[in-house]
Amino acid sequence: MKKILLIFSVLSLLIFIRPALGLNSSSSTDTITSTVSVDQADEMNLLDEGFKGVKHFYNYTGFANVTSGNLIMILIGIIFIYLGIKFDYEPLLLIPIGAGVIIGNIPFVPGNQTGIYETGSVLNYLYFGVVKGIYPPLIFLGIGAMTDFSSLIGNPKLMLLGASAQIGVFATFLGALYLGFNLPEAGAIGIIGGADGPTAIFLSSKLANGVNILADGTTVKNLIGPIAIAAYSYMALVPVIQPPLMRLLISKEDRKIKMKPPRAVSQKEKMIFPVVALILTTFISPSALPLLGMLFFGNLLKESGRTERLADTARTKLIDIVTILLGVTVGASTQADIFITKDSMMIFGLGAVSFVIATMGGLLFAKFMNLFLKGDNKINPLIGAAGVSAVPDSARVVHMEGLKSDPSNYLLMHAMAPNVSGVIGSAIAAGIILSFLG
Amino acid sequence: MTYIPLFTDPISEGYVILITGLLIVFGALLTLSLFFKFGLPIMLYIYKVITKRKDKKLSEIKVVADEDFTGEIAAAISAAIHMYLNEQHDHESAILTIKQIKKPYSPWSSKIYGTQNRL
After folding, report:
1. DSSP alpha helices (H): ranges in A41-67?
2. Which of A65, A134, A250, A413 would give a disulfide with A129, using CB separation of 3.0 to 4.6 Å?
3. A215 touches chain B (CB under 8 A)
4. Cβ distance A285 to B24 under 8 Å?
5. Which of A127-131, A340-344, B27-31, B90-94 is least confident?
């Protein structure tokens, strides 16, 4: 009995000392007196104080502060991790995001610099890279150093497929306007249709960051979390969303079209591509400079043949580090009290619609292009679906669908062309929206 | 920088952005594709005319070999590296733990039962 009492009193002492150490300055005066009273108290009083202390400690734990929203979000985090591990849906994204969702939704007492939205907390500093749009260009650098644009250079007309899929961006933008979002918010939501996580984060951090003030004096909502989660989760769900649309829109014969192999591309062309593309695209859409500049810079590192070391770092270590930070902080930004709102639900709905529209835009435009192409120049309309960036998942989906209708039809190389041009296209679209609404 | 006037209806503004945006995206990628379809071959042709040499592929460019670098030198260097690496040790843990080992008592080889000192 004595031992238990001792443990309780030590516990209560510890808990009452905690605020006295400056962790909670508001109640420091009365805690000092209470510690003194604990020292002088008799056994019964100790027991009382002990219980009080345990209760106080309990109030600091997650069990006392948990809300249903937290539990739902933790469950979603676990589902993300499960999807990543079990079905291999973009595990490099879903597992960090899933873990981040759990981290962000552990209930805590506000005011101790714990949460991601509390200034001064460590997570808040890491989140800085998201809020200020630092991480996305770094990711683009890595993507540039990874991507082989040769299929695009070999068959430049496929670039138009990447442009046609951007109709998803602008259609969603319009849909968001009709649902009552204001212009910058709608612009940020629309970019989900670009199916490009870094671009979506970049644009939403510029437009819907909860800091900008509109012309009529209202502050825009902070929608970075919902938009990023929507973009990444739909990107992971590309293998689920796209195949039904392909079967719906493309006839059996069209699916069997074999494309002639792309011509060999010389190293010189590969070196010229990033420089020319950088200059052309950023002259047209300068606001996309951080994204496109880094993308083509990374590609130049890869193709120049002299900077293999830099390219190697950019496409392995650097992009890994940034992906880790980005995934965890975007996941943690889904703190339930900020994330679970009607807006988030609408964003998720709009995101699904935008993916459908973008895919359909790409597929239909590919069919449209086929009207003008003759003989073996005809393209397989399936590759239009790869125009929604989501590199390289959508190209893989196209390839798998092509194999289903004709086991000897390998579309992967052809699908990569609209795929990478989709990345360029959505970055340009982001730049346009930014220059209109920024 | 474009500033959007206060009084415009966001929906009509949206349509404007929709149309111009799509046109610009198409325009940008169309320019790019046209350039790579027509502009680039011309550029490459001009380059060829100017330099008047056959294009070298990157794989065909020979690395200039150092005549003085013989197999013997390579062997010596590799032997040196090999010996140097063999000399290196891993960083050992600085934590030393003294374990007390208890041996059960056994009268075998005990000094008190030696042949010299009889009790």
Report:
1. 43-60, 62-65
2. A134
3. yes
4. yes
5. B90-94
Between the CA of residue A151 and those of A195, A268, A364, A413, B36, what are the distances in Å? 21, 14, 21, 7, 12
Task: Specify the long-range contacts of residues B64-67, CB closer than 8 Å, at least 24 apart.
Answer: none
Can you give the pLDDT at residue A39? 54
Which of A97, A67, A36 is closest to A235 using CA atoms? A97
Q: Do B14 and A173 touch (CB under 8 A)?
A: yes
> What pLDDT does residue A24 have?
47
- A166, A267, A412 from A401: Cα distances, Å: 22, 32, 10
Q: How far, in Å, CA of A275 to CA of A98, rounded? A: 38
Average pLDDT value over all residues in chain B: 78
**Cis previous bond, A137, omega within 30:** no
Q: B53: which chain A residues are within 8 Å (Cβ-Cβ)?
A: none
Q: What is the pLDDT of residue A77?
A: 93
* Residues above pLDDT 70, as percent of chain B: 74
Whether residue A414 contacts residue A380, with contact meaning beta carbons closer than 8 Å, is answered with: yes
Of B22, B31, B36, nearest to A170 by CB-CB distance is B22
pLDDT at B58: 63
DSSP assignment letter at A26 = G
Low-confidence ranges of chain A (pLDDT < 50): 24-31, 33
* Residue spans per domain, chain A: 2-60, 127-437
d(CA B46, CA B40): 10
Instruction: Inspect the interface and report whether the beta carbons of B18 and A170 lie closer than 8 Å.
Output: yes
The CA–CA distances, whole Å, from A36 to A16, A30, A331, B59 equal: 10, 10, 44, 82
Tell me the two tokens of residue A269. Answer: 């062309």
> Alpha helices of A305-377 — where are they, by DSSP H?
308-313, 319-332, 336-339, 342-370
Distance CA A343, CA A223 (A): 8
So what's the pLDDT on residue A214? 82
What would the pLDDT profile of A57-104 be if each residue is shown by its tens digit? 888 888 888 899 999 999 999 999 998 899 888 888 889 999 999 999
Give the three-class secondary structure for B26.
Answer: helix
Classify residue B66 by its DSSP letter.
P
Written as six digits, the tokens of A3 are 């031992």
Burial of A353 (0-12, 13-18, 19+ CB in 10 A): middle
> In whole angstroms, what is the distance from residue A95 CA to residue A380 CA?
34
Question: Are residues B33 and A156, on separate chains, in Cβ contact within 8 Å?
Answer: yes
What is the mean predicted confidence (pLDDT) over B19-44?
A: 89
What whole-number distance in Å separates Cα of residue A434 and Cα of residue A429?
Answer: 8
Check CB contact of A174 with chain B, cutoff 8 Å.
Answer: yes
* A213 three-class SS: strand
Ranges of each domain in chain B: 10-54
Looking at this predicted complex, what is its ipTM? Answer: 0.76
Written as six digits, the tokens of A34 are: 């209470």
First to last CA, chain B: 110
Six token digits for residue B85? 């690496």
**Measured between CB atoms, does B30 come within 8 Å of chain A?**
yes
